[in-house]
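Bumping my old thread because nobody answered last time. Still need a sequence for this structure:
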């Protein structure tokens, strides 16, 4: 890269950083808190609902997780979840519905490539590393816990 090109790139970075709008952090945090809280309220509603219809307490988490993942995937599929995420930011990423969104979004994007090479291959492009890290770290923590109990 020539010296002239470097100067042009530096000048572009400087101008773009000056003209880029600054995010309103307080507003973004409040939106994330409120919408994330509403998502959690929906989860609590289903928790109470399943408890009232006689689902055992040990199984409540499974039932609620299934429903919330389904809702997140459904809202992503019809294009609503991304609109909510535009306003909520991290408020939609942290709950389990954000996990469903991270699986469904790439699958929908690559649907035109077919079901095997598009949907199936791209479905875990984002969620795959999260699952691998989560499972691996839980195994390591389990081993450490086991060793500490034996000491």
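Sorry it took so long. Here it is:
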């Amino acid at each position: 890269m020539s010296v002239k090109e470097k100067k042009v790139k530096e000048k572009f970075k400087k101008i773009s950083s000056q003209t880029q709008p600054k995010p309103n952090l307080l507003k973004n945090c409040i939106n994330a808190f409120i919408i994330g809280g509403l998502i959690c309220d929906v989860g609590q509603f289903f928790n109470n609902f399943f408890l009232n219809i006689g689902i055992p307490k040990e199984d409540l988490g499974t039932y609620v997780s299934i429903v919330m993942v389904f809702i997140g995937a459904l809202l992503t599929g019809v294009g609503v979840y991304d609109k909510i995420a535009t306003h909520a930011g991290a408020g939609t990423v942290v709950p389990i519905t954000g996990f469903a969104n991270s699986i469904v979004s790439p699958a929908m994007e690559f649907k035109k490539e077919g079901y095997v090479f598009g949907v199936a291959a791209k479905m875990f492009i984002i969620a795959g590393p999260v699952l691998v890290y989560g499972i691996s770290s839980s195994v390591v923590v389990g081993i450490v816990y086991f060793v500490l109990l034996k000491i």
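The radius of gyration is 22 Å. Let me know if any region looks off to you.
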